[in-house]
Amino acid sequence: MSKRSKYTKEEKYTILKEIESSEISIEDTCRKFKISYNTYDNWKFTYEKYGIQALEESKTWKRYSKELKEMAVLEYLNGEDTQLNICRKYEISSRSVLMKWVKRYNSHNELNTTKGRNGAVMTKGRKDQFRRKNRNC
After folding, report:
1. Do 39 and 19 lie in a common domain?
2. Which of 87, 14, 8 is nearest to 49 (CA)?
3. How many C-beta atoms lie closer than 10 Å to residue 88's C-beta?
4. How far apart are CA 119 and CA 86, in angstroms?
5. Cβ distance 72 to 90 under 8 Å?
6. Residue 84 sits in which domain range?
7. Among candidates 5, 73, 64, 62, which has minimal Cα distance to 39?
8. pTM summary value
């Protein structure tokens, strides 16, 4: 299990099934598991569309093209749909990702294609710096 998610895909699935079969309200069941209604709604949508495997937290960054970002941002700014529906339509991982794009767009920064993270770039730099410090002693 990752540092970000408190729940494994199996736990998410169990929670979804319990909420569906529960006699008490969805909100009360969400409180019982200490999740928000939005979290439940996102898990439910993901499970219904992609299955149980999709409930597992991704270990890689999702890549988005510049064009997709611009379409999603403009659709949101023009009031054509809600954040949630735009995220679902364009398969954006979360509303916070969309809102970061909107903020960047509104501050006149360019929306570039998402690039993956590179490996440990600083490792070599630290070794060199360490060697230089030792020579000066």
Report:
1. yes
2. 87
3. 15
4. 32
5. yes
6. 66-106
7. 5
8. 0.62
Dist CA 67 CA 27 (whole Å): 37
- Structural domain count, the chain: 2
Answer for the pair 14, 43: CB distance below 8 angstroms, yes or no. Answer: no
Asked whether residue 131 is assigned to any structural domain, the reply reads no
Q: CB under 8 Å, gap of 24 or more: what pairs does 37-41 form?
A: 40/15, 40/16
- 8-state DSSP, 4: S
Looking up tokens 């809102």 gives 99
> Based on the domain organization, do 72 and 98 belong to the same domain?
yes
Q: Is residue 134 part of a domain?
A: no
CA separation for the pair 33, 51 (Å, rounded)? 21
The Cβ-side half-sphere exposure at 80, using a 13 Å CA radius, reads 11
List the chain pLDDT tens, one digit each, 137 residues.
445 678 898 999 999 999 988 888 999 989 999 999 989 988 998 888 888 888 887 777 788 999 999 999 999 999 999 998 999 899 888 888 999 999 999 988 888 887 765 544 444 445 555 555 666 65
Distances (CA, A) of 31 to 16, 34, 36, 103: 13, 5, 7, 32
CA–CA dist 55, 14 (Å, integer)? 11
